[in-house]
Amino acid sequence: MRKKRTFIWETGGVIALILIYLSVMTWYYPLSSFSIHKSYTYKPGKILYNDKTYGEIVNAFKKTYEKELVKEFESKGRDLDLTVVKTEYILPLFEQEWLLGTNPVTIKPYKLENMLFEVQHSRDIMLQLLADENYTKEQGNYLLASIKNLLHIEDSIRNIRDEKFITRKELKNSIRNLRGDFRDGFRFYVNPFYERTR
User: Fold this and answer.
1) How many other C-beta atoms are found inside a 10 Å radius of the C-beta of residue 84?
2) Keyword Membrane: yes or no (predicted)?
3) How many domains is the chain built from?
4) Which stretches of the chain are assigned E, i.e. beta strand?
């Protein structure tokens, strides 16, 4: 009877230690393979660029851009400007809710995969633009710089996704930097590249 009671206490102690270990791993290493619930809630802050939020900058560009897109499709007598047409497929990359807003967002491995796919898709569109359009050397260099920026973003996403023992603090910094890279990517695509093609 005494051995049975000792066995139950030892088993309970081991189970408790395992649960504590998994809880600690989940908290300190939210995306590790030992984490029970692989997710991290990122709380973005409000950043202003010349007294405007990123969302206001994107919306102002989008309003102007949509007029140019309508005008482009109304002018049937000439070839379409692929820069205007293809930008429609690149913009959603920079309009992700976690980039525009300040509400907390949950980052999970599948969201990182989706983000990576969208970045690769936008990069492919930019490469196609580079191949299909006759840009000046300056415009081509600006587009190449935008493509390089997307390659950097891809690497950042892969680093977050593949690093198994990234701490909560490191993850917060990495996601904050990734958010800044996306925002910089938008500004760099719009001006100098897009504006120079107008």
Assistant:
1) 18
2) yes
3) 2
4) 40-42, 48-49, 52-53, 105-107
